Amino acid sequence: MVPAIQNSMKPFRDMDYSRIIERLLKLAVPNHLIWLIFFYWFFHSSMNVVAELMRFGDREFYRDWWNSETVTYFWQNWNIPVHKWCIRHFYKPMMRRGVPRWAAQTAVFFASAFFHEYLVSVPLKMFRLWAFMGMMSQVCRITTTPFLLCVDLFS
């Protein structure tokens, strides 16, 4: 994978868009496999070992996020401990204070986007806002996905 990444740098420097698309597609499969291996190692193996050592009874670390039809369902099911923490410490206190549901959801995404950016930019020592913007773009997808599910585009 390292040679493929190194070969991808020149098209990005030259802004050769056809080569950039080709390189991104070439990196998509290995990137996806690495992501799935990390997910299995972290959420299924490591967290269960830690739960066993600490005699932690609740072993639900993820649900069926791979069956997601909506962005909301994905974010609610792929990382259960973080989802529960965000609900408990961000979402429910805002709802109790009378904040509208959409504003509370956006604030939770904003906080999550901030921490995702922090976790990416600090180890890589570069601050680019890519993770933050990627997370915040999910808010638009959350609002539009239910409308798209009601429309059958191919019939």
TrEMBL record:
<keyword id="KW-1133">Transmembrane helix</keyword>
<keyword id="KW-0808">Transferase</keyword>
<comment type="similarity">
    <text>Belongs to the membrane-bound acyltransferase family. Sterol o-acyltransferase subfamily.</text>
</comment>
<keyword id="KW-0256">Endoplasmic reticulum</keyword>
<dbReference type="Pfam" id="PF03062">
    <property type="entry name" value="MBOAT"/>
</dbReference>
<dbReference type="GO" id="GO:0004144">
    <property type="term" value="F:diacylglycerol O-acyltransferase activity"/>
</dbReference>
<protein>
    <recommendedName>
        <fullName>diacylglycerol O-acyltransferase</fullName>
        <ecNumber>2.3.1.20</ecNumber>
    </recommendedName>
</protein>
<dbReference type="InterPro" id="IPR004299">
    <property type="entry name" value="MBOAT_fam"/>
</dbReference>
<feature type="transmembrane region" description="Helical">
    <location>
        <begin position="24"/>
        <end position="43"/>
    </location>
</feature>
<comment type="pathway">
    <text>Lipid metabolism.</text>
</comment>
<dbReference type="GO" id="GO:0005789">
    <property type="term" value="C:endoplasmic reticulum membrane"/>
</dbReference>
<keyword id="KW-0812">Transmembrane</keyword>
<feature type="transmembrane region" description="Helical">
    <location>
        <begin position="102"/>
        <end position="120"/>
    </location>
</feature>
<keyword id="KW-0472">Membrane</keyword>
<keyword id="KW-0012">Acyltransferase</keyword>
<dbReference type="GO" id="GO:0019432">
    <property type="term" value="P:triglyceride biosynthetic process"/>
</dbReference>
<dbReference type="InterPro" id="IPR014371">
    <property type="entry name" value="Oat_ACAT_DAG_ARE"/>
</dbReference>
